[in-house]
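@channel anyone free to eyeball this complex?
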Amino acid sequence: MFPKGTKRKFSDSGEEPVPSGDPGPVVSSAAAARTLSSSYSLQRQSLLDMSLIKLQLCHMLVEPNLCRSVLIANTVRQIQEEMTQDGTWQIMTQALAAAQCPADRLVATEVLCRQTDAAAQAGQSPKPFSVVGLEDGYRSEEAVMEGDVESEVNMSTLSPVSPQLTSASYLAGPFGMGPCWEEEEEECDEDEEEDSEECVSEGEDGDRDHLTADSRTGEQVFGTFEIKHPAPPPDPALEELFSDVDPSYYDLDTVLTGMQSAPKMGPYDLLESLSSHGPTALSSSSSCRSDLNELDHIMEIIVGS
Amino acid sequence: MRLPPATRPEGSCPALHARTRLVCRFQDPEPADLSMEEESDTRKINNSFLRDHNYATEADIISTVEFNSSGELLATGDKGGRVVVFQREQESKSQPQRRGEYNVYSTFQSHEPEFDYLKSLEIEEKINKIKWLPQQNAAYFLLSTNDKTVKLWKISERDKRPEGYNLKDEDGRIRDPSTITSLRVPVLQPMDLMVEATARRIFSNAHTYHINSISVNSDLQTFISTDDLRVNLWNLEITDRSFNIVDIKPANMEELTEVITSAEFHPQQCHTFAYSSSKGSIRLCDMRQAALCDKHCKYFEEPEDPSTRSFFSEIISSISDVKFSHNGRYLMTRDYLTVKVWDLQMENKPLETYQVHDYLRGKLCSLYENDCIFDKFECVWNGSDSVIMTGSYNNFFRMFDRNTKRDVTLEASRENSKPRAILKPRKVCVGGKRRKDEISVDSLDFSKKILHTTWHPHENIIAVAATNNLYIFQDKVN
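replying in thread with the prediction:
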């Protein structure tokens, strides 16, 4: 089980009133793209994050609700298309690249973020997102566990990604979820603040700084687990990250524990990748569990301190 | 925020009002009833809808509800894989007030949880759909389906048993031939009425994805089962093969952008069926044209309104249910916010559009976040195709009179529906001041959703499934 407080329940903010009271960005994309208020782009960003997390959770299931997954993936495509048009997509991916930990912002999205990287590196308008993982889910050769990690990598045909990067994004997956979820919350807060103060000017820059800061904290989290990334100097933001404990968070836990008890499912691709840097990689699911337990323990220490 | 255009204050729609003076018939657990009808004692005990909320489990959540073609029977399926069949009480002169009350007739376990060892996944027992076959003899037949397997069930009564066999004794044991000294004629002896449900056919191994709908053909020999990407045609007598008549699976699943959400046969033309998609379109197919109905013969779609475009446009236009009218002239579709009636002769736009809960348009982001936006509401026609009904949140359901264009919101809840109470129209207040008896949008309970409803084929009796409760309402008698 993951320690509570490192992530937040993503449906939480759904119960809160939506910041601007105008949730569905009702804008005709072409005209409005130039006059985008930063609150709009923040909303769009949080919608994107939310969608990516949802997709990621879909991906963890062996047989996701296909209709739902397709609709979410189409939403992501739509957002991406719009962001590509108004240039935000480039800014975001550049910011990520500058932060030296490219995958970390979209860590929760595993496959998707690899495509993102690839697209950003290629400097083209990115290929539309696909519902990768759906097919995965239905592959009957799912039973071949060992092959899975590799075949997954091969499957992302768009990846001129360096091995290191690949492993980073894999590793980032489960660990990174914490920071990523936190960030979404922060963003919401920021959104609210901005709305109330009607301060729109520093939106973009603030957002970027925010990203950089976050990716640093993210990296530090990885550093804690002795993953081969040079750890930057300690960041007080880390403590803040974990100080905001939300005990109401159970959803993801349920999903994760559900997965653990299930004999063999898609998520093991993910879980296995946790240990894929060690020689004991590609081991049985039980070792994944013990890995998780270790992880749990470490997280408890962090949260406790 | 604006009011749904069709909403009118209570009392100003006498025509529909009369039609919706529905009386709750089901919250009637007086012990006196039990003693009056001995044979129904055991049936009543089984009434899942009488259970207290607190004791209800996940398995009790009703996942489908369906009247048979005469309206005499009503079947529900639940998440626990059970089917409960209710039968309408015969009218008796001594108890005229009990006219048309439905009591439990038969309960059986239709589907069990299974495990697919090849794919390492659990197959839920939840009943996705039930469809009755038109009655042809004394027995009743229904099709029930979970995510993967369709089953044909026979429900029959037995009130006599044979006695006096020559080769077997009363317990069914074979008698020693040497002890048989005389022959007798076996006779049928009356016994207590017994209702048996037996699985007659099991149609399995044909669906890779989740079955979302089944539909019996008017030829009474075939039916279709539909999953996210395919439609299969079966003969009711043959379980080891089916014909794939629609397949929209792309060669590369990464290119998948659309799924099939529901399909139904035309009520009279046995070669015509319609299926709806997650992109908001409906395709009408003619099976006479080709074995594989890749090409539709009609394509119904409404152009998108640019003024209401948002990131959620596609999600809310995804069709959750499609139903032919009884006369076969119209199609009704339900999407997240509206229900639409299409004329089969007009493909470019719907004939009528009704707002089910337009006040949620401003809350789509939250509804996306908590996944409510993916709820699959169903819709039904009344017997004469003049009124349509569909569900909403907060245990509300909506009715629209197509002739008078009037609509009403009603609530299915234990608090509001004492036996024979008349349902009061409810109103959701959108912004501004909340008047008495109104409920504000923010206090709607999104966990109480009415997804499944059914309408008696000839009379104004409706059944509404509200999570683990079944409500049956009917027009007021007298």
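from a first look: Chain B touches chain A through 43 residues (CB under 8 Å).
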